[in-house]
Specification:
Length: 606
């Protein structure tokens, strides 16, 4: 355990410290001796497995949960605000009243607008996602000294996540963030607190350096545990040889053996990993989905307009876009769940589909976990990963205890429901997996395993997600929403899509009340290229050709094996020239692609 509450005289004291925090639930220690400090302007991410107690620890930091023991100290005058996973909005007449309580009402209204809410909504009628966005606006409007954020990207679309990143990066508040979104943590965190088996360890680096450090710590623990086991074996052998333990000189050695055994019993092994394997159906045909000039409108709103794609066996296709853009509609069109207007979608031969829905709505809260897996048939076995398993054993693969097999679904946490949905989807034969926000509420280790499972899956994957890192790791192409119901497919992952279309994801649609005010400035009209852009488009091919020559010449110079020994400075200069030319070439190619797409859009009228 690393304690991090000390500081030098040159540094201001922490705004908040937790010292030797202890908490026990149901006889099992959740926290044994947790120490934590939050300094002014710090950027901490709090990581750990599902069930490690991250949300509970954040509530102790916020002062809403009392520990069994230990000390919580907050510097006088320090203000805190917390975004909880399940905010309570009761007692307020409107969402704006809730968000503006003890806050600047103008700032609260602006934040609600940016998060897709007007402020006039009735808090009692909000969906879970809307309530979370309202709570996020309330926490941000407070501008506290310490801002505690528990899964802030849940229920946000990609434009909102990127906006939130920029907003938090510019904030003067100290941040403590729990999130499953790797890209979000890498962007914002400057230190990492790892909550593991009841204790906190701190790494004074952002999340980008955490996983390598964590693996090294676990490897060292495993070596130490192996040494301890070997020492116990050796000392037990000494005891069993008949050497009398009554002799005074051996009493200390005997006590040491008992202490070793006690240490081994007390050692809490690292939490197991979810074991993911999909139940494969007979292979589908090479063609899985074909859509040609497909459209879908609701009243006068065009959700999908003239979209075409051809998805083949083994493809991993991501679908991205702002909330309200029609991602679910597009997926239903492609998978036969919704009829298009006019043109038809063709599914290939022998397609057997399994879906995981974002809302977990198909889970009956009164049904037990076992019945949820078997469809209420009463069976005690499932087939997964090519073999038949007892339900209890299969549930253990997803970190459920045997006793939970008869637990009602309604008693599960969000992360547990996510794991159950995965368990159910993967236990059913499929060659097409349709996953709608599968990363919600899953911890980082489970996301790694889900990524590996998708890489090994023999079928086709259609994935709707706002998790940029997960998209980059899993998909082979991305279908992205454009304006006016248009969708464009890009090769590669999310980062590749951004490189081809521009710096940021598209802005989300404004609420209807806001759009009416902007009716005089329609956004669907294609923009004409400026004179400067036209000139650049004419000049770029020549510049690209010249840079290609420069890159080739630098490669040729560096190909001389004797260059470095003969002229080290010349070698370094040539290497620098190559690096600079390649960077300029990549930038020129991206700029040409951007301008060429803009020209085609302008000439084609959208």
């Amino acid at each position: 355990m690393f304690r991090n509450i000390g500081y030098t005289r040159a540094m201001p004291p922490p705004l908040l410290t937790l010292t030797e925090i202890r908490l026990t639930f149901g006889g099992t220690p959740l926290f044994e001796s947790v120490d934590l400090s939050v300094g002014q302007g710090e950027r901490l991410c709090l990581v750990g497995r599902n069930g490690a107690g991250k949300s509970t620890l954040l509530k102790i930091v916020a002062g809403t949960v009392e520990p069994d023991g230990g000390t919580r100290f907050v510097q006088p005058g320090t203000t805190l605000a917390m975004l909880a996973q399940e905010p309570a909005l009761g007692g307020f007449a409107s969402v704006l009243d809730y968000a503006a309580e003890d806050n600047d009402p103008h700032r609260a209204a602006a934040l609600l607008d940016r998060l897709g809410l007007t402020g006039a909504e009735d808090p009692a009628r909000l969906s879970g996602g809307e309530a979370r966005r309202a709570a996020l606006a309330r926490a941000l409007a407070r501008e506290p000294d310490i801002l505690l954020l528990d899964e802030p990207t849940n229920h946000l679309d990609l434009p909102a996540i990127e906006w939130l990143e920029r907003t938090l990066a510019a904030s003067r508040s100290a941040l403590v963030i729990i999130s499953h979104d790797r890209r979000f943590l890498e962007t914002l965190s400057r230190a990492t607190v790892w909550l593991d088996r009841g204790r906190c360890r701190r790494l004074d680096k952002g999340f980008g350096g955490f996983e390598t450090w964590r693996d090294r710590v676990l490897e060292e623990e495993e070596r130490d545990a192996h040494k301890l086991d070997r020492k116990i074996v050796a000392e037990t052998g000494w005891l069993n040889k008949g050497v009398t333990a009554r002799r005074k000189r051996n009493q200390g050695r005997l006590r040491a053996l008992f202490a070793l055994r006690a240490e081994r019993r007390a050692r809490r092994a690292s939490t197991g990993q979810v074991a993911l394997a999909a139940q494969a159906a007979e292979a589908s045909g090479k063609l899985v989905i074909e859509a040609v000039d497909v459209s879908k409108s609701f009243d006068t709103l065009a959700v999908v307009k003239g979209f075409s794609t051809r998805i083949q066996r083994g493809d991993r296709v991501g679908v991205v876009g702002p909330n309200g853009a029609g991602k679910t509609t597009l997926v239903k069109l492609l998978t036969g769940g919704l009829a298009p207007d006019g043109a038809a979608v063709r599914l290939g031969a022998n397609v057997e589909m399994q879906s995981l829905d974002q809302t977990r709505a198909s889970l009956d809260p009164d049904m037990t976990l076992a019945d949820a897996l078997t469809g209420g048939t009463g069976a005690d076995r499932v087939t997964a990963g090519g073999r038949t398993r007892h339900i209890v054993g299969y549930l253990k693969d997803f970190l459920f205890t045997p006793a939970q097999a008869r637990t009602p679904v309604g008693a599960l946490s969000g992360g547990e429901r996510g794991r159950l949905m995965l368990a159910r989807a993967l236990a059913r034969p499929s060659n097409l997996l349709v996953l709608d926000e599968p990363t919600n509420d899953l911890d980082l280790e489970t996301l790694d395993l889900l990524q590996e499972m998708l890489a090994d899956y023999a079928g086709t994957v259609l994935l709707v997600s706002h998790d940029r890192d997960f998209l980059d790791r899993t998909v082979t192409s991305v279908i992205a929403a454009e304006r006016g119901g248009r969708w464009i497919e890009y090769a590669g992952g999310y980062s590749d899509m951004l490189a081809q279309r521009g710096e940021h994801a598209p802005e989300k649609p404004r609420p209807a009340a806001k759009r009416k005010k902007q009716a005089r400035a329609p956004t669907d009209q294609p923009k004409r290229l400026s004179f400067k852009d036209k000139h650049a488009l004419e000049q770029l091919p020549g510049r690209i050709a010249a840079l290609e020559v420069a890159v080739a010449e630098a490669h040729q110079t560096l190909a001389d094996p004797a260059l470095y020994s003969r002229d080290p400075q010349g070698y370094e200069a040539a290497a620098a020239d190559l690096e600079r030319a390649e960077a300029e070439l990549a930038a020129a190619e991206e700029e040409w692609l951007r301008l060429e797409l803009a020209r085609e859009e302008a000439e084609g009228g959208g």
